[in-house]
Structures are given as C-alpha cells and as structure tokens.
Design a protein that fits this description.
With 284 residues, this protein is mainly β. The protein has three helices and 16 strands.
Length: 284
C-alpha cells in the first residue's frame, strides 16, 4: 500500500456529501527532511530506528524525500470521478544519473469512479431518501498505478456518514485485487475532516486510515516467492489557512504537516514506516 493511497478518499468524501456539483484541481508538496535519522542506526528494510521524520531507504528513494501530489475531481449528478498522482523526487534533474528510477520521478496514483444508487433512485422516483446517520452509499471502482509494479484494482462500497460536528466522515469497504498475488483481500478504511477556528485563524484536521484484514496470499509470476500480508496505514494532517492570514483568498493556501505511520508497508512483512512531513497545499 503506497503513500497517501486514500488521502484522496478524505477529499473525495467531502465532495460526495454535497448535492452541489464541484470540480477542482489542487497540488500538495510534502517534504520529509530526515533530520532525526542516523545511518549508523538502521534496521532491516532501511528503517531509521527512533527517527520521526524519515522514510525507509528502499526502492522508492532515500530517508529524506520530496513528494508532489496532483489531484483533480469532477462530480456529476450520480457520482464522481477522481484522479491523483504522487511524484517522488519531482525536482530531481534528468542529469542525476546516479539516482534510482523512482527517486527521479517515480509515481504512484489512481483513478476512481464512484456511482451513487441512492441519487439514481431519487431521480427516477422523484423523491428524497432520509437514511438518518447514513448520508449515502456509493459503488466504487479504482485502478491504482505504481511505477515499480503496474496496475491493481479495488472494487467495493463507500459509506458517507452524518456525524455531528464533523465536516465529513466516510468509511470504505473494498476488495483489493493485486495482479502479482494469488488471492484478494478485504480492505477497510475511514476518512474524516474537521474544520475549526482559533481566534481569527482557520484550521483543518483531516486524515484517514486503511487496513488490509487478511493479506492476498502467495506471489505469482514476477512476484513468485513473495507474499501479500496484512497492513495498516494512517495519515492524519493538521493544516492552517495561511492564505487567510496574509489576506489572500481564504481556503486556497494551507501550511501544515502530515504524520504517517505504516505497518507492513507495501504489504511486506515487518516493514514499518514512521514519518512526519511538512506540507503545502494549493487549491486552484
């Protein structure tokens, strides 16, 4: 399970809970400086023991890492389309031959199509349905792209919940189907967002977690000899509306941080990641 796979779920869910059509493009720039990492104190798998701002040194790059995320969303009357891509090392020049392929612009991302049977039924029957704490249920399909491995698929449901005091809370239950592993897995997640103010300043607390409950079994083909394990990934964020502070358009420029904790990263047994990243978000 690669980075921020479903940070996009948080944003997607916020739009799906609205009956008003929305379209948008936004960018996120994240930096893990790896100040607390010590190359003389590393565990197997490239993990910096005790560090809080370092990625693992692995096929995706080094402990210090910059990631540029590009996202786009289009809502329609009966659902939505969303795409996002993370680019690792987006500013590494092509002349840097000694860098790994992923560090020189490796990517991870996906395209999601969601369809709301509730919205379709309301249109056909010309009436609104009130499901109490359940705002909506959408059918979801995602094709996910990873530069080192290719494409995998997710099929399932997205559950939009009405939680007092929250901008949104959304749960997902999907089947993960990875071409390189013999089986499939049930993947469960939760995403949330809470906007709040301190004095005159506005903030967002948002994030998600995802967990694969069973693992996908033995590897096949080029993945033979490996195994898809259970995993856990969480990425809470705290963002400050910096644009409002400098009298720019509110809700456009955010500064903050994202904390990522992962267990069995990339479905690899025992691979742990613990990373605090600085973050800039620009809503175009």
């Amino acid at each position: 399970m690669n980075r921020r796979s479903l940070c996009f779920v948080a944003l997607l869910a916020s739009f799906l809970t609205s009956s008003t059509a929305f379209a948008g493009v936004w960018f996120e720039l994240l930096r893990a400086p790896c100040f607390t990492g010590d190359k003389d104190n590393m565990a197997l798998g490239g993990r910096y023991r005790g560090a809080v701002d370092c990625f693992n040194e692995d096929f995706n790059g080094g402990g210090a890492r910059t990631t540029l995320t590009i996202k786009a969303f289009q809502q329609w009357e009966y659902g939505s389309v969303f795409l996002y891509y993370d680019i690792t090392g987006p500013f590494t020049p092509a002349s840097a031959f000694k860098q790994s392929a992923n560090l020189k612009g490796g990517f991870f991302g996906g395209i999601t199509v969601a369809v709301s049977p509730k919205s379709i039924a309301e249109k056909v029957l010309e009436r609104k349905f009130d499901w109490g704490p359940l705002r909506d249920v959408s059918l979801k399909y995602e094709m996910e792209h990873v530069s080192k491995f290719g494409m995998l698929h997710y099929y399932g449901l997205q559950w939009d919940l009405a939680v007092p005091g929250m901008d949104f809370v959304t749960a997902t239950t999907v089947i993960r189907d990875d071409w390189g592993l013999r089986g499939v897995d049930l993947q469960v997640g939760l995403a949330w967002q809470k906007s709040f103010s301190l004095g005159t300043q506005d903030f967002l607390f948002l994030g998600f977690f995802q967990t694969g409950l069973f693992g996908e079994g033995e590897g096949v083909g080029a993945m033979a000899g490996s195994r898809g394990n259970r995993f856990f990934l969480a990425q809470p964020e705290l963002l400050w509306d910096f644009g409002k502070l400098v009298h720019f358009t509110p809700g456009k420029i955010y500064l903050g941080g994202e904390y990522q904790i992962a267990y069995n990263r990339y479905l690899i047994q025992g691979k742990i990641e613990n990373v605090l990243q600085g973050m800039i978000r620009w809503n175009i």
